[in-house]
Amino acid sequence: MKWEVVIGLEVHTQLSTQSKIFSGSSVAFGAAPNTQASAVDIALPGVLPVMNRAAMEKAVRFGLAIGAKINRKSIFARKNYFYPDLPKGYQISQFELPIVEGGELVIRVGEAEKTVRLTRAHLEEDAGKSLHEAFQHVTGIDLNRAGTPLLEIVSEPDMRSAAEAVAYARTLHGLVTWLGICDGNMQEGSFRVDANVSIRPFGQAEFGTRREIKNLNSFRFLEQAINAEIQWQIDTIEDGGRVQQATVLFDADSGETRAMRSKEDAHDYRYFPDPDLLPLEVTDADLDAVRADMPELPGEMKARFIDAYGVSAYDAGALTQDLHTARYFEAVAKLSGQGKLAANWIAGEIAARLNREEKTLADVPVSAERFSGLLVRIADNTLSNKLAKQVFDAMWDGELDADAIIERDGLKQVSDAGAIEKLVEEAIAANPKAVEEFRAGKEKALNALAGQVMKASRGKANPGQVQEILRQKLA
Fold first, then answer.
1. Average pLDDT, stretch 333-358?
2. Tens digits of per-residue pLDDT, 90-99?
3. Of 234, 302, 410, 454, which has the fewest beta carbons less than 10 angstroms from its beta carbon?
4. What pLDDT band is residue 238 in, cutting at 50, 70 and 90?
5. In angstroms, rounded to a whole number, what is the distance separating the alpha carbons of residues 21 and 85?
6. CA 278 to chain centre
7. Is the pLDDT of residue 239 over 80?
8. Is the dihedral of CA 384, 385, 387, 388 positive or negative?
9. CB under 8 Å to 31, separation ≥6 — which residues?
10. 64-75 burial, b for 16+ CB within 10 Å, e for fewer?
11. How far is CA 52 from the centre of its chain?
């Protein structure tokens, strides 16, 4: 490819406070329209905003987690623009001096790691919501969301593919939910992604003209939208056209991006300090309190998993991508004493099953206690891997533990040497051609003989013993 892709993401994370950022109104999702909008939220004359301390603490927690600079004094500004669901005619945000500056996030794409730099994370209020489909010929305005606290997290343009952008968004999603500062519910809008995408010829230092794809609320749509936008920009330039800076929307049905409006720059918003809000100050006591309440971070837990459970760095990285996975793995590893086996199964069978059913590990129907029982039976050779998968499927769809399923379905692995030896002798006698091929140096012939033994035992013979006895008999 002669084009290099340049991507930066702006992620709006809804902070998991009980009330809004500048009022005492509830932020609970799903209330009837306009029932959670106070006088402050709808901007009645004379009302004044009051800063929510919990929002500040959650922003500081995020800054500490990414190794960023916490500005001890940050400024709220008025970002001026007109939109029907913005009651004041401006949004209270942070511009020149945000609460969090810098920091970085390490992402994994396949087996490769990459560090993405962060520009800033700033506090702001959300706007309301325009409802276009609920009415004919008019638009409804629901101001329940107006004033909901957001932390807007802005990356540097360090990503070079849709896959890297998705890896960054997933890692960031995992971190904010890990820290407990956001519930991460993308369907409800708690984690929304805007993607700034441009292209430039390889080797060119100057960035191309970017277009911003707004309000992507799933990782799948994020990847599809970026790839569609990349192709559109390449086609436009190669056909002799020019890319104009714009805000675009992604149409999931057509798989295309379409321009919504020309893209504004900072000066278009006429930012100025909000006269109703004092500078936000973070004291030494504030920092100490947040640090004392910080959970073990993913990088720290990754190193501990490698040391305590003997898993590889790659597996430890995968297991610490989100808190649900990390906690599930650790519970299983402790109960079963089988760290490597637990890692393999979580990354393999469990991940595959969850992907097919479009679920996350938070929804896994097999408890850590039940799953650890299965791993114990694999480790003590009660079950072969093939039989273990049968037991796992039954556990997934029912409530019995591994031992009860093994007993009910007669799935205990045969490890009796005498019984296996008899089956081996029968297989050798029935397959003289395979015996001849193995003795002629064809290793695959041994697998064919082992397969016959496993078939005769209905999958219950211990595979390791089968191979060992076959080699003894054929030596």
1. 94
2. 999 999 999 9
3. 410
4. very high
5. 17
6. 36
7. yes
8. positive
9. 144
10. bbbebebbeebb
11. 28
- Residue 225's nearest CA partner among 201, 197, 244, 261 is 197
Question: Other C-beta atoms within 10 Å of 340: how many?
Answer: 13
**Mean pLDDT to the nearest integer, 453-460:** 75
Q: Sign of the C-alpha dihedral, residues 262, 263, 266, 269?
A: positive
Written as six digits, the tokens of 454 are 């496993």
- Other CB atoms within a 10 A radius of the CB of residue 97 amount to 17
Q: What is the DSSP letter of 48?
A: -
Please say if the pLDDT value at position 387 is more than 70: yes
Instruction: Give the SS3 label for residue 103.
Output: coil
DSSP codes of every residue in 317-364: HHHTSSHHHHHHHHHHHHHHS-HHHHHHHIIIIIHHHHHHTT--GGG-
Q: 347 burial class (0-12, 13-18, 19+ CB within 10 angstroms)? A: middle
CA separation (Å) from 223 to 157, 162, 195, 318?
A: 16, 5, 10, 20
Average the pLDDT over each of 81-85, 368-372, 447-451 and give the range with the smallest value.
Answer: 447-451
- Please say whether the beta carbons of 215 and 248 come within 8 A: no
10 Å CB burial of residue 123 (0-12, 13-18, 19+) is buried
DSSP 414: B
- Would you state the pLDDT for residue 416? 58
Q: pLDDT-derived band of residue 413, with 50, 70 and 90 as boundaries?
A: low
Measured CA to CA, the distance from residue 264 to residue 246 in angstroms comes to 8
Enumerate domains of the chain plus CATH numbers.
3-285 (no CATH), 295-409 (no CATH), 417-474 (1.10.10.410)
Nearest to 76 by CA among 264, 269, 275: 275
pTM over 0.70: yes
435 — pLDDT class (breaks 50, 70, 90):
confident
| Phi-psi domain of 117 (left: phi exceeds 0; alpha: psi -120 through 50; beta: other) | beta
CA torsion through residues 256, 260, 265, 266, sign = negative
> In this predicted structure, what is the pLDDT of residue 445?
79
